[in-house]
Write a structure and sequence with these properties.
There is one protein chain. This protein is globular. It is 11% helix and 53% strand. With 137 residues, it is mainly beta. It is built from two helices and eight strands; from the N terminus they run E-E-H-E-E-E-H-E-E-E. A hairpin with a 3-residue loop joins strand 4 and strand 5. Strands 1, 2, 3, 4, 5, 6, 7 and 8 form an eight-stranded mixed beta sheet that branches. The chain has a single domain, classed as Alpha-Beta Barrel (Serine Protease, Human Cytomegalovirus Protease, Chain A).
């Protein structure tokens, strides 16, 4: 199954009062040698696949990945998607940030994983596509 969407939107305050600035993921993505893990609800034991195409665009952090049925979290993730779960959430370490009033502005982030979640901290961070892959035998 191929899925894609926005895991973070630039300049939009989330429910934790964080704002991600454009360019915040650039260095982390450039350093990454392996595909980014796709988890369910940030649970490491529920690895469902990998995000193989990740990039920043004018809107935010866009990604596309593939769920792999041979991984422990794939079945539960597929059931969650079937129930309408479509939220995305980043697992990260803030590298460079500063306070601006009541918000934390994140200007550099070490991206660790992106999870499919029921309740994303950034409500607009959602899947835009979930499509089955049909492969020839």
């Amino acid at each position: 199954m191929i899925i894609e969407g926005y895991a973070a939107l630039f300049g939009v305050e989330d429910q934790m009062r964080d704002i991600v600035r454009a360019g915040a993921f650039g260095e982390s993505l450039a350093r990454r040698a392996e595909p980014l893990p796709m988890l369910l609800e940030h649970e490491p034991r529920l690895l469902a696949g990998y995000w193989t195409d990740t990039r920043e665009d004018g809107r935010g952090l866009w990604l596309r990945g593939e769920m792999r049925e041979d991984l422990p979290g794939a079945t539960r993730t597929r059931r969650a998607l079937a129930r309408g779960v479509d939220g995305l959430s980043i697992g990260f370490i803030p590298i460079v940030s500063h306070r601006a009033g009541r918000v934390r502005v994140l200007t550099e982030i070490e991206l660790l994983e992106v999870s499919i979640v029921t309740h994303p901290m950034q409500p607009q961070a959602r899947l835009t596509l979930a499509r089955e892959l049909v492969r020839a035998a």
